[in-house]
TrEMBL record:
Pfam families: PQQ_2
Lineage: Bacteria, Pseudomonadati, Kiritimatiellota, Kiritimatiellia, Kiritimatiellales
UniProt domain Pyrrolo-quinoline quinone repeat: residue ranges: 332-528, 553-639, 648-863
Source organism, top-level taxon: Bacteria
Segment forming the signal sequence: 1-30
Name of the protein: Outer membrane protein assembly factor BamB
Cited Gene3D superfamilies: YVTN repeat-like/Quinoprotein amine dehydrogenase
Gene: bamB_1
Alphabetical keyword list: Signal
Amino acid sequence: MKGGLKASRGSRCALSLTLILSLGAWSAVAEFKTTGHDELDAIRQSIAFDKTNRENYKLRLFMLKQWVCSLQQMGANTEAFLEVSEIYKKNSPWNLMHLGGKEKPLTVKQEAEMFPAIDRGYEILDVLYAECNQLSPEPVVRTDSAVPKGGNKTSNVRKENWPLYQKNNQHKGFVETDVVLAGKEAWKFPVGFAAYAQPVVENGIVYAISPGMRTMMYSLDLETGEERWTTKQLADIVQDQLYWTPAAGSTPRVLKDKIVVRDIGSRGNKGDTRYAMVIDKKTGEIEKRVETGHVDYRTGYAPIVANERFIVFPNGPHDIHENPPVSGAFNRLTCRDIAYGRTMWNQYTGATMCEPVLKGNTVVTGTMNGNIFCMNLRSPVKGERPGSVRWQFQAEGGVNKTPLIADGNVIFGSNGGMIYCLSEEDGTVLWTFKTDAPEKRAMINFSPPVCAEGKVYIGSADTFLYCLNAEDGRVEWKYKCNDWIRSRPVVAGDQIYVCSFDGTLTCLKNTGRKAEKIWEKKVGTHQTLADLTCSQNRILVSTTDLFLWCYSDAGDLLWKKSLIECAYDGEHRILLEQVAGGAYFQSKVTAADGTIFFGTPSRFTHGVDAETGEELWRFELGAAVSVAPSYSNGKIYVGQQGVEEYFYCLDAKTGQKIWKQSIGWVWGSCNIAEGKVLVPCIDGYATCLDAETGAIVWRHRTNSSLCTEPTIDNGTVTFGGWDRFIYNFDLHTGKVNWSKYFDHGSDSGAMIAHEGKLYFPSPGNEFRCLDAKTGELEWNIYVEASIFNVTPAFKDNHVFASAMIGRMLGSTPVYCNVYRINLDTQEIVWTHPGGGHTAPLVAGDRVYVGSLTSPYLYSLDEKGNGDGSTECFWKFRMENRMEEACMAFYGDKVYTLSSGGWVYAVE
């Protein structure tokens, strides 16, 4: 057994804290460089003459964390910040759940340590920023056209499938190849958030949410896009601040004097993300919080509607930190009064992802099994109680998007391809219309409808915008758009504006018998999911890369606004605030048969041509896809976390559903062997499914969430989870061979299996080796200050282990290392920057790895230099870091998902 190893810093060129301070950090900055974030710049300028104290430390510490992450995104080496971050770690808890959710005040001793450290932290970071590019409000537009598209199309390269998380059942992350990559971009594919929140306009003022850790909402001038005010939050000082801090997650509901916004995030109902914020309309200040129940951030959107007295919202079991865990779809509709937060009524509906519609005394909502409920909001109707169901209707297919109440009618689309018009009074069917070919790969088949001048306009995933007669449902015309239509269209006189999924905004003229295209614009680079807003001859479009675009009715771009604070380091967007709630870009790329597969925070699984980056198909799930879509025998197996309870099997060529099975939420990727699909479930079940039929073969309930990818070897499967036990089962029967308790348990790092051993990276500073037959610990490696929480790669009895160094506030490390460890001697062979929460892979004699603390993808020499270091052949700059995503090596390219909102193919 080895212990207490101190990691070499290898080829890292870092200034120590002592060296920086000896240089006179503050005076080293000859001229103050602004960031464009007024609040951050004001703090940076004030540090020299206004030292941190009890009144200002919390905001300064919070913004210091944001500033560290921004510099890391710019590629700065923040290793010199380690000594400062260790002071924070010493004086702040990991999270507040075990403290009853209450932040404790600092002691006098803690103040004496932390306050000077905050000042030093800003000094250090200003020196680092002095060596970086100047941040600016606008990007530098690229003028070159030399970026290769479509790959190098080398025909004689052997394309060995990368079908599972870390390639194979044993998670070795290794492929034998002679291909050496040059670090050039072949193509990139846009991937975004589930940005369903619609901007709202009232009296020339735009209200739009931000998911930032500091900023929750913007009030903007419609004419210019200039900020009027912003709604700020100040998170509790905890080490898991990223997960503890709520993100604004709903369309703002604008009332007479107030605005209501619901949050999303992590930590369940014991955490700080379970409220609707009531915001002062004049100032943007948060007046109060009304408890609405926790919404897991991977859901992507937190539905809520409101009037002056009440808020109405779907609610459900989103408590994955309970023992046992509780998770599932929203399954009831709740009404609370705004003034006191009292529950007025609570009505069970069954699984729903539909945002209800509220009009007068009527509440209408739909469910995933096609039920439509019409309920009384408040005063009794015909002796019925508030919240009682006035009528119920069964539609053909799920109703997953907001209905419309207009002129005494309820109008909506269902996933069976049907559009319905019902009587608001009693639910009587007034008319129906059926589309020719509903898109079976869409979870939401229709946009919300809009009614104007006796016409109903509704977009469809079959790519058509339909204009129907409001009296009888007769088709007046239909217009084919570029892509699925998810956004509610808007109507202004005889002009209709519609935006398709790919961001194509089209202006149509209704001539009575047909629609004529007036103009068409491509909005940005990413997809559009949110409903359009039209006011004063301006059209607002929100895209999944968190931009808000304002166009004139003539199609001219008037302004755009980032919905999270940012600036530009050359062409790259630098986030000056982190997205709150958790790590969103977690899906792992897999590849087989000429196609790469990956999931998105915006709820989709994609199949994309490996050579060209052309989308071949997409399949929509209920919430974020954090897993690797696993491939076997022409099929894809994938689950989601946040809304529905189904796990899916898809055709790998078409994306069409083959079967689905109800097993709950899934965070870790499944493993597949011998006709069995092994799935780690958030509700604590180790689950085995039949690969052909989806039938449950066996299940075993553990004590807490199972998050780690299971490892299959020699007829057994090993699971790990949050209850700190490792479980080994017989693959075919589910019989427990052994279970062993280990400190820290298993979180994001799966085990590697090799020759009767299990190599186990725990979320601490230990790397363990277990006997695969008994689970007994054979040896430990302790690496000073390192946190192992991701799967290594394996080659020639060496592992390439990724580690985080220094746990800064918000779960972000100060820097990350990759270690080559000799398993025979348990010694570190070499160390290099990179890794963190992303796994390395080995292809031939190269190690490829991303980083949680830099925007680079690294190509490293597998052997090393013999002196504890290794050669870095190139660094490929991405838009942002890698969170918990992992790469695939396929043919002559490496593929990865970056939290900058792109999947990259690098050749």
